[in-house]
């Protein structure tokens, strides 16, 4: 089978069309807001008071979603195989990190709502609507479809281009300095997961007053997913560092996905916590910011172990 046939078969074409279509709702909404439209923004929303900061945030997130279009083309066109590895793996890593928690949390939240168990906790008297409810449904549905389609495109691409690096068995363990880094990832993953699970099952210590009051089964799902991702990063890093006769693909996938989610969401939430709160709520507490930082550190350590594992495994 030729490279042209591999990249332009019916399956990749269909996934490419789905992924591109899934970017449209978010791009349209962001473009409308940058143009001054208030579609999806109710009267009294804190978003109407953010000015320049919100415009910059909308422009950045619009560019991020637009980059999905470029990524899809790289994964489905013959010239995509010639793109430098680092130039592809960085956006692919970020896309994995940002979309994976949504892929797990959003469908679970839909099921909870369908079962009639998704009523959020009562908010304070001063609470104001942030966005119309339909906006979240449309946007997160689009993100979920993007994630599934990108995974369906990236896995066969990675198998063709770098398959010898992450297939086969783990082999010899990594040098002891890398083992120390893997241990740090495991310890960080355990701590982060423990805190998130505590919050997921009703704990409120460390949360701000408003965040604690707004806790619900829906926010509990989000905490649980972040706990799962942190654990995946730590476990995957330890397995890669230890080596052995296990198949290499699943510890590699575990570490890639877990480290990406922990690092990217930790960084995203940490940065967001430093600026004006777009929902009009209170700033994140010091404890919550510490957890965001811990997620970043865990993700960095696990990603470093994965890189140390993959780089020496040459093609051919």
TrEMBL record:
Transmembrane segments: 14-33, 53-75, 87-114, 134-158, 179-201, 221-241, 253-271, 291-311
Keywords: Membrane, Transmembrane, Transmembrane helix
Protein name (Swiss-Prot/TrEMBL): LigA protein
Species in which this protein is naturally found: Streptomyces roseus
């Amino acid at each position: 089978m030729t490279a042209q046939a591999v990249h332009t078969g019916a399956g990749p074409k269909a996934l490419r069309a789905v992924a591109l279509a899934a970017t449209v709702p978010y791009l349209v909404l962001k473009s409308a807001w940058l143009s001054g439209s208030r579609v999806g923004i109710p009267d009294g929303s804190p978003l109407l008071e953010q000015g320049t900061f919100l415009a910059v945030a909308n422009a950045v997130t619009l560019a991020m979603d637009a980059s999905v279009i470029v990524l899809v083309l790289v994964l489905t066109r013959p010239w995509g195989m010639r793109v430098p590895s680092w130039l592809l793996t960085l956006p692919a890593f970020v896309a994995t990190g940002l979309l994976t928690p949504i892929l797990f949390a959003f469908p679970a939240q839909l099921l909870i709502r369908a079962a009639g168990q998704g009523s959020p906790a009562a908010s304070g008297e001063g609470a104001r609507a942030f966005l119309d409810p339909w906006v979240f449904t449309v946007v997160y549905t689009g993100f979920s479809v993007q994630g599934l389609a990108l995974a369906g495109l990236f896995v066969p691409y990675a198998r063709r281009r770098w398959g010898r690096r992450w297939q086969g068995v783990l082999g010899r363990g990594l040098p002891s300095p890398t083992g120390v880094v893997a241990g740090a990832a495991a310890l960080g993953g355990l701590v982060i997961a423990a805190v998130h699970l505590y919050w997921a099952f009703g704990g409120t210590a460390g949360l701000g007053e408003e965040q604690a009051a707004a806790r619900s089964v829906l926010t509990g799902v989000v905490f649980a997913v972040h706990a799962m991702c942190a654990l995946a990063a730590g476990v995957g890093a330890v397995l890669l560092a230890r080596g052995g006769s296990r198949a290499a693909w699943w510890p590699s996938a575990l570490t890639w996905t877990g480290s990406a989610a922990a690092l990217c969401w930790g960084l995203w939430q940490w940065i967001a916590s430093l600026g004006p709160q777009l929902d009009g709520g209170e700033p994140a507490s010091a404890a919550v910011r510490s957890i965001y930082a811990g997620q970043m550190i865990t993700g960095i350590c696990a990603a470093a172990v994965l890189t140390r594992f993959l780089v020496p495994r040459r093609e051919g």
